Amino acid sequence: MDDTVTAPFSAASLEPESDQPLILALPKGRILSECGPLLARAGIVPNGDLMDDDSRRLRFATGDSKLDVVRVRPFDVATFVAFGAAQIGICGADVLMEFDYPEIYAPLDLGIGACRISVAEPRETAGTDDPQRWSRVRVASKYPNIARRHYASRGIQAEVVHLNGAMELAPGLGLSRVIVDLVQTGSTLRANGLVETEVIAQVTSRLIVNRTALKTRPEAIGGFIARLRAALAG
Fold this sequence. Notes:
The chain is of the alpha/beta class. The chain folds into 2 domains: 11-113 and 204-233, D-Maltodextrin-Binding Protein, domain 2 (3-Layer(aba) Sandwich), CATH 3.40.190.10; 115-202, Periplasmic binding protein-like II (D-Maltodextrin-Binding Protein, domain 2, 3-Layer(aba) Sandwich), CATH 3.40.190.10. The chain contains 7 helices and 11 strands. The chain has a 6-stranded mixed beta sheet with strand order 2-3-1-4-11-5, with helices on both faces. The protein has a 5-stranded mixed beta sheet with strand order 8-7-9-6-10. Strand 7 (136-141), helix 4 and strand 8 form a beta-alpha-beta unit. The longest helix is centred in the last third of the chain and has 16 residues, at 218-233. The protein is elongated and about 60 Å long. Residues 1-15 have low confidence and may be disordered.
């Protein structure tokens, strides 16, 4: 990836390398719990109640005075990093695909949070009509950009109904023909009468870095990347 692209404005560019701790943005939920052992192997131990889902705190110190952690919604990690509020973060490749921020560099695949972005539809209609023959389709998804790009690559116009949850209800209630959603085991699809008909992309979590911060704070960020790389290798 071309590291010459910079954000139009980045809070990171205002921070002297030695004065402020790096901010690591982590996503709430399953990925956060899977991050714990990896961070521990890298010698990063957040203080307090980071892993407590009931905690209302959002920023946490760590055993390293040069690193703080913030806990945000999974879809917000990339935004915090892209605009320099956090210099580094961990998020799913699905988020990177959806937002495609040029301000973000993703140097490491962490191999955690494995899942997939898939197309699913009601069991009764799956296989009864060839999608290659469609000219347009209505899709329910929290990934409008991914869904549109997927169907546009086949010459199909996708009308996307943007939902943030309960996608599985959409086909049965006439809101859409299909859904595009993140799938881990497929149990929620099956419980709601849907089947996967296509996998758009396999997803794992990535370490992401603000490009401007990487240029202005290369030692601090380079050291953090090296620690995670060593933890992955070990």
